Amino acid sequence: MPFHKEMKHVAYYMGKAAHGGDLLEEITALCTARGITLGRVEALGALKKAHLGYYDQDAREYRFLEINKPLEIAILVGNVSVKDGKPFVHAHVTLSDREHRAYGGHLGPGCEVFACEFVLQAFDGPQLTRVFDQQTGLPLWDEG
Ligand code: ZN
Q1: What are 91-100's pLDDT values in tens digits?
Q2: Taking the CB of residue 67, how many other CB atoms lie within 10 A of it?
Q3: Which fold has domain 9-141?
Q4: Cα Rg of the chain, angstroms
Q5: With CB atoms 3.0 to 4.6 Å apart as the test, which of 3, 15, 93, 106 could cross-link to 53 if both were Cys?
Q6: Is the sign of the CA dihedral 40, 34, 108, 52 positive or negative?
Q7: Cα of 52 from ligand 1 centre, angstroms
Q8: Quick one: which of 97, 108, 55 has its CA closest to 73?
Q9: Boundaries of every domain in the chain
Q10: Which of 14, 35, 28, 126 is nearest to 79 (CA)?
């Protein structure tokens, strides 16, 4: 059975990210303001530009791609947990360009919002804390 913890649903927050804002910062700021340290997020909308990560498993580091053009957010999905004592948003996105070609990856800082509607779901339950994982080199949830 995979590692897991049981959560209770507490609340939904629906809103829109600020035009020109940094999408990851916008979601993180809401979590911080509302004291949300456990949850999930989904969103759709459009970006002015994007900065997406791909984790190179051999090099054990993120490679970032900057896409400097308008893009649709076809889907963003992510979770909220704790890293370094603060709410930490981990999200992945699928974006599409004017030719409807898709880009995907780890949501990095530097994704500038054109328009974005989100749903943030807050949970109550045992904390999930990110710690350095030797096997992957990633900050994964502590199983302790
Ligand atoms: Zn990721």
Answers
A1: 999 999 999 9
A2: 16
A3: 60s Ribosomal Protein L30; Chain: A; (3.30.1330)
A4: 15
A5: 106
A6: positive
A7: 9
A8: 97
A9: 9-141
A10: 28
- pLDDT tens sequence across 37-94: 999 999 999 999 999 999 999 999 999 999 999 999 999 999 999 999 999 999 999 9
Joined together, the tokens standing for residue 26 give 């916008």
Helix (H, G, I), strand (E, B) or coil at 6: coil
Burial class (CB in 10 A: 0-12, 13-18, 19+), 115: middle
pLDDT at position 144, please? 76
Calculate how far, in angstroms, residue 106's C-alpha sits from the geometric centre of ligand 1. 4
Q: How far apart are CA 1 and CA 34, in angstroms?
A: 33
